[in-house]
Amino acid sequence: MSDSLLLAFGIGLAFGWTLERAGLGRATKVVGQFTRTDFVVFKVMFSAIVTAMLGVFWLSRFGLVDRAAIYVPTTYLMPQALGGLIFGAGFVVAGLCPGTSCVSAASGRGDGATVVAGMLVGMLAGGALLPFINSFYGSTNRGVWQLPALLHLSYGGVVLLVVLAALAGFGIVERLERA
Amino acid sequence: MPRAPRPFADPYLAGVALGLVLLTSFVWAGRGLGASGGFARAAAAVAAAAAPEATSRNAYFAGYLEPAAPIWRDWLVVELAGVFIGGALSARLARRQTLGVDRGARTAIAPRLLMAAGGGAVMGLGALLARGCTSGQALTGGALLSVGSWAFMLAAFAGAYALSPAIKRFWTAA
């Protein structure tokens, strides 16, 4: 195996490990986010986003990492917004997302394995349908578009805003869990 | 008597650990995490095997088949294999690897599996349109402050919460 693929495998290994440790391989725990009983999804997701975001910010600040060398997902605004709505609806029914469905299946859970199979079918069908919605799929291409440009703030300013929003969110979900 | 499964990790600690995995990927690989991309690559391979002619004319699948590397040497697929094995190892070591179906207390196995298949298919469609999922868009693009990724993330929560009143009874006990 080449170095690059070894890295891909190692990153995947650590990714799957942390998802499982957090309990995200259990559909019944994941959907607590939507039945408002257990907000583990929000807590893990935003702790991770904040950690990685701060890491990128400070490492580039100290000149240890070139931010331009990191691939930023291109924005296709409308397909991503509509895709997100559809994805969310599927998520709450499936009880697992693509990554966590693999962890659930690997933990021996039949529902996880079924979500994996369902996803493959959905993607095959979606790919076959795509030629008919190709103009929408490629629409509202904004290239690499980041929040600092949208909000007319500095990169560091947005980083601070996201940290504050995450902290406020953690406070709210802790209160909801105790209620 | 088998020993009890270990408790789950603290969610904030697990989140920081996940963030460090994501950061490592940014720094060493120049890209973030992904999950649905591996599924898309696999779907493209299935399509190419079943209908090679039509698949090569399909812009979406062709994009995944373009680098022409065999599927087991594809970054996304190898990463997803890692997710599977990492999850299995963690579950086994924590004594959580048991056969079963996770479902709401009032939901039988058959309807639960139907939800998993249907929800999975819809999710696949959404991830295809959005060019990514909770990993490639929400986590990765979220940490990199991509506008489209934040739009995806907010829309995904909105979609899930909009549908949750209708689906809630399949998940809760009472």
Structure description:
The complex is a heterodimer of chains A (179) and B (174). Chain A is mainly α and 179 residues long. Chain A contains ten helices and two strands, in the order ααααβααααβαα. A two-stranded antiparallel ribbon of chain A has the order 1-2. Chain A starts with a helix and ends with a helix. The model of chain A has no long low-confidence stretch (mean pLDDT 96). Chain B has two domains: 90 residues, no CATH class; 71 residues, no CATH class. Chain B is globular, with a radius of gyration of 19 Å. The interface between A and B is large, with 122 and 121 residues.
Sequence-ordered SSE layout with sheet pairings:
The complex is a heterodimer of chains A (179) and B (174).
Chain A: H1 3-21, H2 27-30, H3 32-35, H4 40-61, E1 75-76, H5 77-94, H6 98-106, H7 110-129, H8 134-137, E2 141-143, H9 147-151, H10 155-178
Antiparallel strand pairs in A: 1-2
Chain B: H1 11-29, H2 36-50, H3 52-57, H4 59-65, H5 75-93, H6 109-130, H7 134-143, H8 147-167
Helix pairs in contact in B: 2-4, 2-5, 7-8
